Amino acid sequence: ALGFERAIIRGYFEAHDRNPGGAIDSNFLRNYMNAKEAGYTYIDVYISPCTGRSTCKTPLQQANDLIQFINTHQMVVKKIWLWVDVDPDSGNWDLGPIKNRQILNDLHTAWQSTGLEFGIYTSQYQWELITGDNNWVLNSSLPLWYAIYDGHPSFNDYKIFGGWTQPTGKQFNGDSKFCGG
């Protein structure tokens, strides 16, 4: 695993193209098996929730779909990350701050009901774009994985938002290739 202990792979993706309601990533199981085979100690999964379309499943249905898949395939997952990030191609998080906040609350409730450890992936910019307010708090006790693509693996650039006084992780590079890939 090239000295890394944790792999974070996509398990569920938002609606787009011919996938009107969100779905399990067709590469999820293979990517999970590859991570296990490579020797990763911890495997986290992220979900890009379906939001912004009338065809989206409810947050609880999306959580249940992913949990059922994980259980069916006897996967051991350390943490689920809720990907709170606008994807212009999917039209997600395009409902305005009030409705977006309600969806975030519904996602929070759905994932709390699973008993699994979960956290939030977002950035200060995306949080304000989606919720309308950097100071709006969903649950600041959840782990935060934030994104600033600056090439620096440190938290020195972190600025408080959403009630999180400190992050758990940072995505500092968006396109790394290993093994000559």
From TrEMBL:
Gene3D superfamilies, per the entry: Glycosidases
InterPro entries linked to this entry: GH (IPR017853), GH25_Enzymes (IPR051595), Glyco_hydro_25 (IPR002053)
GO MF, one example: lysozyme activity
Keyword Acyltransferase: no
Superkingdom of the source species: Eukaryota
Entry keyword annotation includes Nucleus: no
Transmembrane segments: none
Keywords: Signal
Any one GO biological process: signal transduction
Cross-referenced PROSITE patterns: GLYCOSYL_HYDROL_F25_2 (PS51904)
Sequence similarity: Belongs to the glycosyl hydrolase 25 family.
The name this protein goes by in its record: 16737_t:CDS:1
Organism field: Dentiscutata erythropus
